[in-house]
Each structure stands twice: as C-alpha cells, then as structure tokens.
Structure to design on (1386 residues):
C-alpha cells in the first residue's frame, strides 16, 4: 500500500510536463530578450547611444551569476547530502525544483519588475534574480528534506516562488527597502515559509525514521562540498545585483570578512557546548555560513570591515547555539521538524541581518556615503527620506516578510497535505529507495526499515 | 599473462615522454604569444591603437574560459566516476588525456586558424578552443570507458584531435557554418567517433565484467558532482567564443533555459519509463545535460527563450528514452558497447542541435537581427548568402561531421586494436586495480574477478 | 589521560574568541575601505578623475579572486582528505585556519604595504593577497597534517602569517624581487616553514599510527576534487595580481601549459618508478600540480609557452621522483615526517621556480618586452638595474626566503611543543575521532587503536 502511494510513475511525469509546458507557453506569449541580449536592440544601443560592448551588463554580472548558480545547484544540493540514505534525493530534488523555480520566477519577477508594453524583458540580471528566488525555495526544502515527495516539492516551488515575487515587490518597490543579498526576501522568507510548511506537515511518528536521519562519514564529506562552495561564493551572492563599482566591491568584501569571523565563532562555540570538547560537523556545515546571511541586507552599505566581522561573529555564535539548544525545543515543543536546521542558518541570522540593515540604514550620513548615497539609498540621496525613516522602512519590511512567510507557508502546507502527492510514510522518511533505483550496496537499510515496521506497530513517537 | 599485457611500466612512460617532448619541440618552433599576450605587442596596441587594458580579450573571455576548464576537468572527470570500481581511471585518465589534448589541439587548431608568417599565435581564445577540442576527445572516452588502456587513450587523443581540427576547419572556414557551442564539431563528432572506436574494439566477452559496470551509492554522488558542474557552466561553454556583447549574453541565456527545461523533461521521462515509477540516476546524471548540447549551434542565434526551452525539453525527452530503449538495442544488435551512453547525451542531441541550428539559420531575417546580423551570420549580413542557403550549409556541415567521425573513428579503432597497447582483458574491464595501486578496501573485487575467471572458462558472451 | 589532553572544550574556544576579538579590535582601529571600495571615495574618483565604473579594479580582479578563493578552501581542503580517517580534520581545520589567516594577513600585509595616515586601506587586491598568505599556511599544514591540534594550527597560523608578511616585504619592497605567483613567498616559504615545524615536533613513535596514514578508495576520490581544482585555477592564482592586460593573460597561459606538461610527466614517471607499472594516486594528486608552482615567479615574464612546458615537465618529473625516493629518506634520515609530501609539491618545485625566475629575469631584453618592461621589471625599465642584477636579486630573494622559513619554522615548532595545546598522542594521529563527533560507521578504527594502546603502556611520547 505504502509502495503504491509513493509511486511516482504518473504523478511526477504529469506535474513536470504540465508545469514545463505551461511555462513554455507563458514564455512564448510574454518573454522577450532585453536591450542587452537582443541582437537588434543591443546594436541599436551601440550605434545610437555611444556604447561599447564592454558596457554590456554581461561583463559586470556574469562572473557573479556563475558563482550564484554554483551556490544554488552545488552549494545547496551537496549541503543536504549529509543524510546517510538520502544523498540522491538531496542533490537531485534540489536540482529538479531549482530548475523549475528559475523558470517560474523569471515569469513572476518579470511581471512585477520588467513588464513593459505587455512583455517581460529579460537579461543577465533577471537570471541572477531567478536564481536568488530559487534559493528561497531551497531553504524551505531544507526544512522538509526527506519528508516530502518531488511532486509536493514542485507544488511548493510553484506557490512559494509566486509569494516570493509578491513579497519582494512589496519590499523593494512599494516600501523602498534595500535587501541586495536577501536577508529578508530570501533567507527570512525561505526559512519561515519552510518551517510553517513543515509544521503543517508535522509527523508525530517520525521517530520511526530517526535511525536514518544521521550521517555516515563520507556523506558528511559530501556535505562539506556544499558548505565550502556556499561559503566561498557568498561574497558574489550578496554583491551580484548591487550597483556597479564600489558597491559590488564593498559588498563582496564585507561578506568575506563576516564569513571569516562567523567561522571562528562557530568552531569556538561548537567545542564549547559539546560535553567532551569535540567539534560537531553539523555546526561547521551550517553555522559557519551564518556570516553570509547576516550581512545580506547591510553588506552593500558602509558597514565597515570590522562591523561586518562583529555581525558575522554574532551570527556564527547564535546559529551554533540554535543547533545545540533551540532545535530540540522547537521539535518537541512547537512540533517544528526542521531537517537541516534552517531556522538556525537562515531564520535567526536572516532576522538579525534585517535588523542590522535597519540599523546601518538609520545611521547613514552624507559624510560617509558622499555621492555614492544615490546608489545605496536613493530616497535619502534625493531628500525624500531621512536615514531614520529608511531604517524604519527596513524594519517594517522584516515584519511584512515574516507575515507573508508564515501565512503563505501555512496555506501551502495545507495544500501539500493532499494524500495523493506521494509523500513517504513515517517509517520511510530520509530514504532514497522509495523514489530511486539504488545500487545494491544501498538496498539493505530500506528493507530493514520496512521489515522492522511491522513488528514495531506500537512504537512511540516524539 | 594478462598481467603482463596490461603492465604500463614502459609503454605509458614511453608514449607520455614522446608525445610531450614532440609537443614541446613543435611549440618551440611554431608557437608564439599573440598581440594581446605579448608584453611588447600589447603595449604597441596600447600606445598606437588607442586601446586600454580593458580592451584586452582576457577580460571578455577569461571567466568563460575558467568555467569551460572546470567542465573539462571536473565535469567530464567526475561524471564518469559513477562506476563502482573505476573512479581512479575515470577522473585521472580524463585528466591525462585532456592535459595532452589541450596541448596538441593548440598546435592543430593553430595551424588551421592562426598560422601567419610561419608562426602560430595564441591567446585566451585559443585556450578555450583547445579545451573545446579536448571535450570531443572526452566524449569519445565516455564510449570506451573502462575498456581501454591509457596508452590507447593517448593515441586516440592524438588522432582524434587532428581529425577534429580538420573537420572544424572544413565546417567553419570552408563551408562557413556556425557552431559556437559545438553541437556538430564537438558533440556529434565526439560521440560518433567514440562509438565507432568502441564498435571496432567490440568485446564479445564483455559480459564477464558486467558485475563491475554498475555503481555504488557514493560513486553515484561523485558522478553528480560532474553532472551539476557540466549543467551549471554549459551557458559559459556555449557562449565562450561567441562575439562580444549581446551574443555572449544571449547564448548564455538560451542555454540556461534549455537546460532547465531538459531537466524537467528528464525527471518526468525517467519516472514514466521505469516499471515502478522510480527515478534512475543514470538518466539524471546524463539526460538532464542534453539541453546544453541541443542549443550548441543555435544558442547564439535569436532562438528566443521559449524556443530554447522547447529544444531542451525535447532533448531531455529523447535522451532519456535513448538510455532506456535504444542503448540495449545498440549493444545487442549493432555491437555498440557505449559505457557512458554518449549516444544519448551527445550523439542524438548533437544531431538534433545541428538540425535546429540549420532551421534557425534559415529563418534569420534582418528585422530580427538588425545590425547584429554581422556577428551571427556574416555572410547573410554582407549579402553573399541568403538565410536559406546558410541553413543548407549548416545541414551539410552535419553530414560532413558524421562522415568524418564515422570514418575517422573506424580507422582509429583499427589502430587501437594493436595488441601491445595494454588493453584490459574482457574479465577485467571497469577495474582500476589493473592500472592503479589501490587501497586495501578496494582490492577484493578484482581478486574475486580474477579467481572467478578460471572456473568460468565457458561463460557465454552477449 | 590522553583523552584529557586532546579535549578542546576550553582551549579551542579560548584561542578562537581571543584571536577573533583581537582581530576585530585591530580592524576597528586601523582598517578602512580603499578608494575603490568606499562609497564616498570611489564617487570622488568617478566625478573628479574621469573614471567609469568599468575602471574599478573589481572587474579586473574579482573573477581571479574567486578562483584563488576556491583553491584555498576547496583545493587545499579536499586535497588533504586523502587520509582514510582524517577527512573531517583535513577539510575543516583547513577551513578554520584559512578563515583566521585571511583576517590576520589583511592586517600584517596591510601594515607593510598599504599603511597611510595611520590607516590600512583595503580592497580586492588585499583580499587576494590575504588568500595567498593563507595558502602558505595551508602548505605548512600539509606537512603536519594529522599530527597537530587545531589550537596548535591556529598558533602556527598566527606566527607564520606574521613571518610571511615580513619575508614578503623584504623580497618585494626592499630587494625588489618579482614573485607574482609566489614560488618563493608562498611555496618555498610555506613548505620549508612547515617542514621545520614538523621536524621540531618529530614523533619517533609515529609508526603506531601508520595503519591510519593511508587512504581508502573514496577518500582518494575526494582528494582528487582538491587536486583538480588546484590544477584548474592555478592559472588564475599566478595571474591574480599581475599587471592588467597582457601580463594577466600571459601569466595565465604560461601556467596553463606548464601544468599540462607536468601532468604528462607525472603519469609517465609514476608508472616508470612503480615495480609493477601501476600508477600511484599520491603522485597524480600532487606532482601533477608542480607545474603551477614552478612558474610562480616566471609566469608573468616572457617565458614563452614552450619554456613553460619545459619547466612544468621537469617539475612533474622531479616531484614524482621526490615522492618515490626522497620522502622515505627525509623521514628515516632527517626525521622529517611530511604527511602530504609538501617538500615534493611545494618545496623543490618552489626552489626550481625561484631559480627559473632568476634566470628568465636575467635574460630580459628591451627587444622582447618593449614598453611592457615597466609592468614586469620596473627597475630594468627605468634603467636603475640591469637584467643580470635583477636576476641576482631574485636569487638572493630565494636564499632569504629559505632562511626565514627555516629559522621561523624551527622557532614556531618549539612554541607548538607546549604540552597543553591538545596535540594527539602518537597512537592517535591521523584520527578524526579525538577532535570530532563522528558517525557510527567511523567509530571502530579509533576504538581499535585505543584498545591496542593499553597493552602498550610503556610507549614513550614526544
């Protein structure tokens, strides 16, 4: 019976074909190359606007795009391979839902940000933004990892991308908040959205799959590939869509130092909170990255290098403490089953990052920013806002993000509860074998689990 | 006896030293820095031609080069590590033959494309082209993986690079076909060349090594490193040598969307064709990449984003179906033993990509391309060709490529049959232990195979 | 008892917090954004110096920086995961000490190179240089890998970065030597420094941990990730801080060809020196990289492509022979226990690279370099030095580097002998379990080692 419900033979092809064909149709109707991507339009720019090929945004943004792209598909994908029996699902479902999310978000973000004369115009910047949006979906994926079918995940991506687009539009275009690296739009949104989905999909019997929730030695090394790539390229992530020139350089540098400091804080705290003074791979794999999240909003501002370090240091500390002390409480008290601990890596550091952004914005002065103010805070530069007001707007942007994420995640969780979406039974979570043809060396654990299921009917839950 | 024939002690050093010293000699005589790489010549450009360092092609192409370089050495190398007992050979022979191929192709391509005043002049673009050529060799390597010695592989590289250079010269310089991402020159050529080599080297007793042809759980994860890197950087691959400006950006974008669509098509088809609705790692590792291959010719053209998606979707579909239904037939009926299934990933999508390129070329109009026509179709722009004629040329370029690949691969296969080249016996294919010092944990399988060889003399073959 | 001394509970947090807080304090007092990173200052450049955003050094250097960053954290990190039971320590201690070293070296190098008006001004170039300096520390780490605690490693980084900064200042600013890719400052310095530390920390009873010093099959594949990334991005490493334009392109190209040649030399030599003609992963993982080290000084010069190939070829040859014949002698005769064989990969090729640099500098002529002379050899260009004199200076720079490394490494080794720094006992070297929470599948080997320790109570320690 359980074999039947998780059988993807018709469900997965149906949703993949449907979503892909719908996307192609909408692209055919609405999406066009922008002025820098179209052969005709770019050559008009060259001929009539005194530009050279060097001015094409490709050369300012493509290296950053490729770093972000690596983070989305290698970074997130391998970070989640830490599970001993869910490596295929981690890296490959990550691949599937991100491949869909970048297409769908091109449409959604396009409608909100580059819809002119009935057409969406796209280029390198929209590609980066699409990857960013898929990052939020992958953060949510981390919360429900191993407990959802690829059909559920594609549906989650469909709805989450849409809500992401709305929230981002409200924050950036209506409220006029700044959030280049997405402490709010990506990390806070993705984390709390995913946590709410996980809350609605709460599994009281998940204890039956706990023996598969850990790692093996080499799966932890695969996960480190993800960790290090995320860490390495986070400076590119935060700087990918900031203004050209000093802004990109400053954002990359702030992120670089914030991450370095969060790494030392993570190692220190990990050894400190462990009874035997041993380090815990879970902390290193995750909390060391909190330094990237926490400067997602303020990284483009004149944060100063030491300011970035303080932020990263605190983020690494808080994140590690979260893994040690908060995650078990969230699980037992609030019924929040957070497989990857996204609350520690993206949730709390995202909120901290939003607050830090509000603070640094409120401290902006003409003396510090000079003529660069217009790039970072256009409303302060043109006199329509004070720094304090900008800071206040940043703060409300956080509240709105939390609201959209919590309400949206709850609603989407309810949709994902539909029984025919192929969700794994409680006894077979964190197990590749239900969705994958697996090699011989991987087949025993599943059989063991299935067999142990019957005699263990009375197993207690969390 | 078999131990003797696969012993590399003299053969491998001899061919490595010989090829390397020959290459160094030819470089000493013929190869010089080009105008952008030479200290004297570039500073002449700066002083006398009103250029700035920003105009150096390094800044337009080096990031793309590094992405291509990563695809060649990490992407191809790890993609082939899926075999349970051939990980060393996969990644390291890939390393060896690519390291030789990039040197040799610099010479061969240099003679055809940048030979002036008795010297070959090289720079960043020749480095990209050399990597491209080595890509074709690595595709062929995929067809014969596990069944050939490194000595055979180096000889194959020597001849294949040479034939690649001739074919490319005929296509690009004589016929005037366009093929920036190499649907024809790289993928179609490499696949059918390798398949013919494999056909000539047909092993009727390969069944004796089938128990080693599969994967283990972690070898599939290593292979996913290769897959994802190839997928990620394919936009850079296809755009690396297109014209500056809109062309590079458009090519990258088309490839990005084609790959996303082929990923969804692959997941859908993989679940559909599996009896139990389970996904197959072989499909995900390979067919999801077909979207990059299929826009190799047309990616720089005004394909439109939705056109790229349709192409990618069909390529993923056809490629997955090929793995499921065509590969077994090719093996049993046509005696084509294709270890990595390069016919599905590079062969069919390459041919489709060539046909798509012919179609899109034939549809080119001044209205669509504007002044950008000269970059994409110089002969249409200068009035010497109609779009239809350009499309026809593209089609004949495909036929020529197929012809050169099939004839060339057959001839090279005959050369590689020489008995003293260290080829593994049928019982020891897909086995690292014959060429490598392996750690203890890897030693049993080989011994088992060798032992089982004796009592199993009458084993039937495919 | 031994469990107590390796307990990190207080030691590691104490040193991490102390070093990080000290660094933050020094950054707060001394470190400021440079003219290209500060919003106010860069916009002054834009407004008053006729610059455009394209001129920001970010666009010339950031792609190279990211490649270097990948080498430091992925390349070095995974290269060292070859040990069967020290994968966590390899990649994660690499992560920790590099994260500290980049911060500390920003200060040290800043004091020597960009200290104006009481402030250190930093930007993208200082980030690259900080990564370079951490590379030297990681080379030293390779010599002591598995035999030191993270507390010892952080202390080593603290002192080594400081001495690196002094040595670099003497070489580049006082002697006026050229060393863009660090054959001397990074490789020679890092290798001999680490070897001397290892010499002082000599463990006569290390034999007791030898059963853990080898690899397992998949740990060798993890190591190949490191190898290939180092190999791939070495062209970026050597060219990252050379002058804009031809210099960056030429350096990348020379390194590309040198590495290709060293790869063929390594495969050839590895098969040749093995009794059975088999290849050895240790050689491939390391010696193939010697081509990058050997052109670290001369890569930016007019070395010619074939000159680079000859250099790489010899470096691969010497390095492989070193692994086979020299390492055992250094261990048994000179008591140099060099876990990763850094003497073969960085030591000898570094010295060769320094000598090659001296030779190529001495051969510089106006005819070859033209107006590009000022970028490569400013003192020859302005007439204050002859080429021969520049070559002599290069040679003395090597001698000084060797002196500082040997004396400095010895002194730091003495400091690291302090008994309370958590160093592992001789029976538990190359073992993750003493510093890490490890998964179940990894726990046996350690227990076995601990148990075997008991009957051996009389074993003497360091």
């Amino acid at each position: 019976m359980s074999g039947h419900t998780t059988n993807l033979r018709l469900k997965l092809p149906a949703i993949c074909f449907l979503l892909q064909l719908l996307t192609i149709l909408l692209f055919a109707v609405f999406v066009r190359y922008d002025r820098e991507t179209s052969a005709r339009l770019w050559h008009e720019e060259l001929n009539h606007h005194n530009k050279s090929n060097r001015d094409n945004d490709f050369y300012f943004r493509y290296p950053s795009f490729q770093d972000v792209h690596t983070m989305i598909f290698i970074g997130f994908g391998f970070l989640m391979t830490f599970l001993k029996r869910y490596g295929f699902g981690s890296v490959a479902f990550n691949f599937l839902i991100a491949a869909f999310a970048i297409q769908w978000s091109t449409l959604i973000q396009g409608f909100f940000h580059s819809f002119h004369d009935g057409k969406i115009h796209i280029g390198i910047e929209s590609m980066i933004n699409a990857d960013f949006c898929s990052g939020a979906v992958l953060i949510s994926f981390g919360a429900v990892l191993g407990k959802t079918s690829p059909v559920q995940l594609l549906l989650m991506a469909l709805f989450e991308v849409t809500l992401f687009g709305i929230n981002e539009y409200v924050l950036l275009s209506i409220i006029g908040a700044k959030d280049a690296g997405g402490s709010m739009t990506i990390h806070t949104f993705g984390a709390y959205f995913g946590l709410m989905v996980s809350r609605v999909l709460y599994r009281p019997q998940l204890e039956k799959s706990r023996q598969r929730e850990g790692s093996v030695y080499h799966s932890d090394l695969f996960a480190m590939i993800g960790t290090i790539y995320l860490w390495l390229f986070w400076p590119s992530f935060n700087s990918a869509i900031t203004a050209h020139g000093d802004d990109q350089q400053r954002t990359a540098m702030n992120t670089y130092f914030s991450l370095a400091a969060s790494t030392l804080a993570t190692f220190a705290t990990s050894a400190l909170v462990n009874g035997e003074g041993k380090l815990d791979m879970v902390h290193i794999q995750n909390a060391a990255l909190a330094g990237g999240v926490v400067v997602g909003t303020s990284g483009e501002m004149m944060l100063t290098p030491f300011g970035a370090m303080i932020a990263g240091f605190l983020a690494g500390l808080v994140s590690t403490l979260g893994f040690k002390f908060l995650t078990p409480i969230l699980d037992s008290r609030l019924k929040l089953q957070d497989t990857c601990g996204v609350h520690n890596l993206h949730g709390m550091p995202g909120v901290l990052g939003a607050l830090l952004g509000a603070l640094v914005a409120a401290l902006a002065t003409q003396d510090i920013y000079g003529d660069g103010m217009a790039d970072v805070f256009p409303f302060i530069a043109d006199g329509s806002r004070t720094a304090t007001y900008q800071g206040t707007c940043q703060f409300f942007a956080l509240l709105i993000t939390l609201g959209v994420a919590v309400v949206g995640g709850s609603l989407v969780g309810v949709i994902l509860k539909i029984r025919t979406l192929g969700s794994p039974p409680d006894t077979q979570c964190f197990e590749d074998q239900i969705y994958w043809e697996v090699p011989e060396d991987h087949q025993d654990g599943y059989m063991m689990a299935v067999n142990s299921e019957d005699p263990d009917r009375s197993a207690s839950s969390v």
In short: Strands of chain B lie at 31-33, 115-116, 119-122.
